[in-house]
Amino acid sequence: MYKVMIVDDEIPAREILLCIINWEDTDFRIVYSASNGKDALDKYTDIKPDLIITDIQMPIIDGLDLIEEVQKINKSQKFLILSCYEDFTYAQRAMKMGVTDYLIKDLITPNDLYGILAKTQTDLDNITIKKSEIKKEHKLLNFLKENKDIALRKLIFNDISQDDCYNLIENLNLNLNGKLFVLFLIQIDNFFKYIEDENFYTNTLNEIIKNVSETIEELNIGECFYSENGEFTAIVRLSPTISEADIINECYYLAQEIRKRISLMHNISLTISVSSTFKKPFKIKKYFDEAFKLSKMKVFLGNDTIILNNTFVKNLDLDTDTLAKRINAINIAIEQNNIENLKSELTHLYDKDIRGFMQFNYLNYINSSLLDLVVRTCNRYSIAYEDIFSTSYLPIEILSTKETVEEMSGWFIEIFTKIININFNNSFKNKYSKKVADSIDYINKNLFNQSLSLTDIAENINVHKVYLCRIFKEETGENVTQYILKARIDKSKEIILSTNYKLYEISDKLGFNSPQQFSILFKKVTGITPNQFRDSYFKNL
């Protein structure tokens, strides 16, 4: 059972929360109601609530300041913000503080609260599961030579003297005698997706740990240890040189060799971040921090990457004007129901526009701006979050699961495409009579049905095909066959741009007799062939 603390200076608001749902039907119980943030903060340590439901504007200490103070005590504390203010600036500040759940008091429904509680319960259950998984990981660490791991951690993180350093190296026979070193931070990509597999944790991860250590030993380049969450730290000995080019080449070769061997053994990808060089293998925490900071750049560079400090170029200018123009272009594409332009603008934004900046605050600024556009667009077209996300709220936390800008871009493309499709469907339902609107809806849902025809449509909507043919032509300006062809061509464009399907596969999926017929009809409708369409799109990116 999870404990809930309510924080609101308005008695009616606290009472509404008590009775808006049957708390007995949930795994949550209200254990305390505070009248302001100070009251809540004073009781927090004693009560230790699992969920805090708080108002924003309150006397003495407001809701956002309460969140900030509580997070100093417990960074993983779960919050739900309730406010009278439908202002995205509050959500933005809360989002920066890690709060993802935000509801408007006057609009809250029992289903909203049940939905938030269900999601929060899942998060809390997952925390418990992760704690259990961490315990399993610690058991796996026992397979390593414990003394060596402790020694390596001490060399990196502790303030150790030179004499103690070399005593450790000699007594434990560490392969760290040299005059030039770098630090490798080796990460298993998408690690938290793998840990859902019990076999990975009990068998595969242990094998990977063993194989990485063996690879470092076989290459005779230094020492490494496994820390946690799919990360290895290696102190790597280089050949003595003063040539920057030689250092880059050797680091790249060694990192590539490690990636190649481990990837072949386990069918996984690794990202390896390489620090700058140092001459003595101790008091090197700053080089670990350097490699760790570099590893964060894989959100821009993608997984399965070698990130060398020597070749990393920083650019600290934030081009907010370009972002504003791109957001406006995305908004126009949505208004025009133009999925092709939408994908092009988002791809540019996360690819060409962001290259060179590589700063998380700029990336967060982009994501925040796009989330704001999602909110405004849904409000403008009266689209419910349920229709897009299958939840009654905006699930901001999904972005935190995306490891690369490609994944982030893909998520926003998916969301905005859904908005366009929902808005388009709503618009044609208002534009046409019920019979014609039903016909169009049936056509769009059955484009992959090779037997789709006038007779099939007429039977489905229970009308004579002659009558349907007449009213369809009168209202749309096209006969049913022409409309089906154009709809299939539009669908084929979408598939061409969003998948790697071959043209013959697309032709077959959409019910064309042959790839040749598909190409001829595509050109008849668009003026160019499918291959020309694909080439022109990607040429412009």
From TrEMBL:
Alphabetical UniProt keywords: Cytoplasm, DNA-binding, Phosphoprotein, Transcription, Transcription regulation, Two-component regulatory system
Keyword Iron-sulfur: no
Record CDD domains: REC_YesN-like
A Pfam family of this chain: HTH_18
SMART domains for this protein: HTH_ARAC, REC
Record-level Gene Ontology MF annotations: DNA-binding transcription factor activity; sequence-specific DNA binding
Ranges where the Response regulatory domain occurs: 3-120
Source species, domain of life: Bacteria
Modified residues (4-aspartylphosphate): 55
Domain HTH araC/xylS-type: 437-536
GO BP: any one term: phosphorelay signal transduction system
Coiled coil: none
Nucleus recorded as keyword: no
InterPro entries registered for this protein in UniProt: CheY-like_superfamily, Homeodomain-like_sf, HptR, HTH_AraC, HTH_AraC-typ_CS, Sig_transdc_resp-reg_receiver, Tscrpt_reg_AraC-type_HTH
Function as written in the Swiss-Prot or TrEMBL entry: May play the central regulatory role in sporulation. It may be an element of the effector pathway responsible for the activation of sporulation genes in response to nutritional stress. Spo0A may act in concert with spo0H (a sigma factor) to control the expression of some genes that are critical to the sporulation process.
Organism: Clostridium beijerinckii (Clostridium MP)
Location relative to the cell: Cytoplasm
Protein's name according to its UniProt entry: Stage 0 sporulation protein A homolog
Primary location class: cytoplasm
Gene Ontology CC entries for this record: cytoplasm
